[in-house]
Amino acid sequence: MLVAVATIRMKDLFATIMLVGIYGLLSASFFVAMDAVDVAFTEAAVGAGISTLLMLVAITMTGRSENTTRHKPLLALVVVVITGGLLIYGTLDMPYFGAKDAPIHTHVAPRYINDSKQEIGVQNIVTSVLASYRAFDTLGEVVVIFTAGIGVLALLSVAHPARQNEKSDKIESYNDSMHKQHLVVRIVAKMLIPFILLFALYVQFHGDFGPGGGFQAGVIFAAAIILYTMLFGINTARRVINQSFIQLIAATGVLLYASVGVVSMLNGGNFLDYNVLSLNPIAGQHLGILLIELGVGCTVASVMTIIFFNLADRREMQLSIKKHRKKDKDSTPC
Amino acid sequence: MLIAATLAIFIAMLLAIIRGIAGPTLYDRILAVNMFGTKTVLLISLLGFLMGRPEFLDIAIVYALINFISVIGILRYSDKNEFKHHKELDKEP
Amino acid sequence: MDIMVIILSGIPLLIGSFLCISGSIGILRFPDFYTRIHAVGVTDTLGTGLILLSLMLLSTDFLVIAKLVIILLLTLLTSPTTSHVLAKAAMYNGVKPVLKQS
Q: In this structure, how many other beta carbons lie within 10 angstroms of the beta carbon of residue A195?
């Protein structure tokens, strides 16, 4: 809570981001202490890692310190207090956290824990709940992530002119000038990036047995691409990874997920009922979980990459505008 | 013995946070965050061994990678003279 | 045989945690930014190596030992690089080292 209060009070946005990173780490440690492995995994990868990076790129465009507000936002404070009070009043009715006779402990949780092995057959109960019992909620999450990607594309994308040959000379010289400065980090990153991509694949397919699954794997994959982009320049990264290909993969992920549901309906079951996908129910569940985790991983990785590429493009545009303005100022005689 | 090591790393993390809040320059704070990150990797591994669940090691690997990428990201996007070609590098030693 | 393994794994554990604590005391008490980088970078890497070595001696499953080796190699590769990048970035942004005792 100390970290949260300090985050709100600080005016320097850069320090705020650092504190948000530390906050994410502390939450991940709490989840580890409470023995919740998958949640800790996702929190460490997303909360402490990718969010910090994306926010950093965002504030390079908005400036380092917060604007001082000119009026005291009293109305907003009243609204927040009333809403918070109503929400807390609503939760007073619920049973205490961890009480033994709460419905979630007597009906819901034992059924998942007892029956998950026979009905689904994967060892990781979190994956079985997320991907099979509650698959419809996960479909909603994937669609939300996809919508966020579309939103960023609609608002922030910068039109690229067709790349002519004279532009490629400028790209080469830029890379050379950065080359001597960042040589050590570039070589180390070149060694690390294949390993990170391989680890992302491992986490994706290992979600049945240990912590992991689609969300974490997508985030790790995007982190590898972000590392490459940061060290080698956005132009080189765009030449390696085509933007339209990434957009296609994002859409394919959601399509894959939803079409698994439709295929189940066509085979005679309910929407997203995996029992009818294959000859016996257990194999059907395995196949269904594999396919939808793949869809989730594709969408998450590509949306994060899209957001990062667009923010980096905007920043590049801002910096080149500043450079042109400075050049004009220098060239005019005083 | 493992508990003693866990306590030691916990104390090290607290001391790093103190430096992180009180460091005079920005780079002190970045150094403190980096140190906090590497100690967290150790803490997660030790806690995994203490609680008998070796799945925590996956989290430790992820966190080591994220720590590295975040520090590189922070340094890349906080340079004041970022794209200036530095003249000191052109002179051969 | 068990006692032997426990003692053999306890020694790197103790040395490693002593190094980590001394590194963090160093980051509080050293006078200058560049000296603090030394304190963190050296003790962090070595302390991590020793503690992970002791954990490797304590575990029995091959997969766990393999993952510990991966974390060790990763830390050995990235921690000195981070110190290098920090020092370079600080140099180009004007953080001046304290050159004589004033």
A: 16
